[in-house]
Amino acid sequence: xxxxxxxxxQKWVGQGLRRKEDPRMITGRGRYVDDMxxxxxxxxxxxxxxxxHAKIVSIDTxxxxxxxxxxxxxxxxxxxxxxxxxxxxxxxGVEVKTPEHWPLAKGEVKYVGQGVAVVVGDDKYAVVDAAxxxxxxxxxxxxxxDPEKALAAGSPxxxxxxxxxxxxxxxxxxxxxxxxxxxxxxxxxxxxxNHRTAGAPIEPRVCIADYRAGQLDLHLxxxxxxxxxxxxxxELGMSxxxxxxxxxxxxxxxxVKISHYPEEILATWAxxxxxxxxxxxxxRSEHMxxxxxxxxxxxxxKVGAKRDxxxxxxxxxxxxxxxxxxxxxxxxxxxxxxxxxxGCYKIPNLNFVAKGVFTNKxxxxxxxxxxxxxxxxxxEVMIEQLAHELEMDPLxxxxxxxxxxxxxxxxxxxxxxxxxxxxxxxxxxxxxxxDLDAFxxxxxxxxxxxxxxxxxxxxxxxxxxxxxxxxxGPTGVGLQAGFFESSLVRVHATGSATVYSGTAxxxxxxxxxxxxxxxxxxxxxxxxxxxxxxDTGTGPWGLGTxxxxxxxxxxxxxxxxxxxxxxxxxxxxxxxxxxxxxxIELADGKFAVKGSPEKGLTLAEIAGxxxxxxxxxxxxxxxxxxTTFYDPENFVFPFGAHACIVDVDAETGKxxxxxxxxxxxCGPAINPKLIDGQIHGGIxxxxxxxxxxxxxxxxxxxxxxxxxxxxxxxxxxxxxxxETDRTETPSPVNSLGVKGVxxxxxIAASPAILNSVIDxxxxxxxxxxxxxxxxxxxxxxxxxxAGRDVPADPGKQGGSWDEHGSGxxxxxxxxxxxxxxx
Amino acid sequence: xxxxxxxxxxxxxxxxxxxxxxxxxxxxxxxDRLGLTGTHVGCDTSNCGACTLHLDGDxxxxxxxxxxxxxxxxxxxxxxxGSEGDLHPMQEAFxxxxxxxxxxxxxxxxxxxxxIIAKNANPSEEEVREGLAGNLCRCTGYHNIVKAVMSAAKExxxx
Lengths: 822, 159
What we know:
The complex is a heterodimer. Chain A is of the alpha+beta class. Chain A has 21 helices and 27 strands. In chain A, the strands form seven sheets. In chain A, strands 3-5-1-12-9-10-11 form a seven-stranded mixed sheet, with helices on both faces. In chain A, strands 7-15-14-13-8 form a five-stranded mixed sheet. Chain A has a four-stranded mixed sheet with strand order 18-25-26-27, with helices on both faces. In chain B, about 35% of the residues lie in helices and about 15% in strands. By secondary structure, chain B is α+β, with helices and mostly antiparallel strands.
């Protein structure tokens, strides 16, 4: 437990305050990058490859350059950069084949949407016209889009120089797998597909690069502006101090705005070349082809148990489709699946192997949950498959294997120590909302009438609060950065405060929750606390917002800076009140001697003294502000229990979510309204993946889902209202006791939904399914289970979607090599 | 470039007249020419509804309307539906019920929500959900947006 003093009373923390961010946003006065226009600004359009793999024979830019208003056309060979698009993972002892990744293709293109040239001009419509006049001649090369085919002998190679499409193998494990299988009475194996999805924030990526006399201002839709500045400095050979990266209001990220992308480098190059600010605004089609995708993991899973339900071991080999090039964290993402491969359970023997694969597609990288949704999905689907095999209640099986509340902190077999948890508690609370006996009666009655209703569960946990540096940094798993978070808390002379955070929120409501934390600790109101972030020109270096880290790491950093401010304030109060600092307490907004609250000083009075420099302790520095760089000792581990109830139309395969109920635990709530909002959005993201969304390339590597016409995000009409509840189990890792919640709903929900559909369809002989559960796919599986032939599933084209493992419990192949994806 | 065309329209109660390219989208006319950047672009294919505004009293997606098609029309954007000191009940409800997170879809959602309750003072949850189906949000899961629209309808009924 850390020793940061807690406020005596909590007036603001715990309240569902409405957000400080909202007034500007509901009146149309938010300021997103695309809303900005700089004097003399030019526009940039990108010429992208229509080929999945081809040699570039020639690029003819003359036609574009001849058009009025076109200032420059830039191709790959024009760029002189010290380094390319960065990837930040260097795992000790593991070789990761890492191709050069330049912002524009040089000589060869390797996926549809790869940038080949950019056009810069006066008018945003005219530069698109001009881009169409850049004539590129391609000589097509063989394409591979299926990651399992890419690993087979004789496959076309994405990068000839490596002689293989296998990027690397990384593993984590513990115990003895031979013992796991010899002690097991039952072994269940499945091939679980976690298909490729898009983060798809409603705001596309945008940047404005403004290079003037050696100084660069880069306005960017980013989740981590400080890192972008560091990378830009390296690539351009600029000094870090001469670059300012600003992420103003950012319209959602979901992970896809973590990475450093070619376009921000290209706009900067163009600004330098033309001497004008240059703006690039991504179209949605560009977003679908050229912004990172997520998931795309095929998991060969094997779980063993004794007849009484005791799990003896779990093994998973993940085939991770990484695409053609890496972005910031591409090959690292499957590690997150390994970190939580034990789930909520005591599993003595564990083994997880990730095999990365190059394919002729856009890179995958972090999207909401990043590797943990894959883990929860495979574990929680396997738990219910195993329960069926054991003829055991799936909740009873879970309870039998849960890590008990009293066993925390709990070290699992792979060596990770879970901070705190109460898995029985969240499941018990969930069942106060879901009457399971009543449900089973209703389910039986409905089946009589031909309505197929099912219930599925997910008891989930995850690892977040990215940090700690010793675990994830260069000497840990090998990310090439520290993972602390910074804060600066500045009390002004009039007693209000500005907080600078190294996080970069984009919808999370941190302006409000951070203000609540600070207000309680300083004895002021949240209205008096302004939170600044997302600007490298203000405040200290920070690591940004992702990995559900902002509150557990950034918030704790702020609590610590505030505690230091309070310490100094107490010394000033003690001096003026002629008391000892340790006798001063903050109560009802006043710093007073314990027992004499009437003579206390307000923060404004103390800050006034600190800035006017009168009546201060001898030798004390003026001013009232403090900085903290906080690097926690461990991750934090949120958890919860979710239940989904669906009706499946057996005639059409259409699925309706009837109820969705969840109990989640992210420690003590700072603002319960914001927590609920994160959970709602997270669940909906998972509903999208299970039922509607799939990034789909055909066998030629053409992107079929290139717009929102083809890539279906769930709408309000596709999801239910959610029933949410909480338990609060504090984390011992930080003084606030908090854990992350931004990704929780997404990490939790997909197996609950999938399990509910399987439960609904068991009477029809369907015992296993893979996502996405499109009506056609579900209908086909119902037909196959009944022994009827079905037309070829168009979803099978161009990817290892569901060739194996569906239809019957025994159909899962036993290893990736047997799976083959053929 | 094709010959510019003169368009005139009333935007948020003010008369505007300008020469535009015939292909100029209404959303770009508002954002780039009039500086009304509250109306956002999210998808280019009229799926996401971030660009929703009111055109002669109906909610429309302004990324799929040409500025010349709005000639002679009355346009209301998020900037015109209410102000900081005098919020529209739908704006107030979105704030109160945490109906927004990143805020990017919000102007379109508020304009769509206002249109729903203008035409149906007492909508059911299902009617609200169907009514919002043309507006996508990636943050909120719609739960609080639906709550906000239902609540604004109730407030309207009381007023």
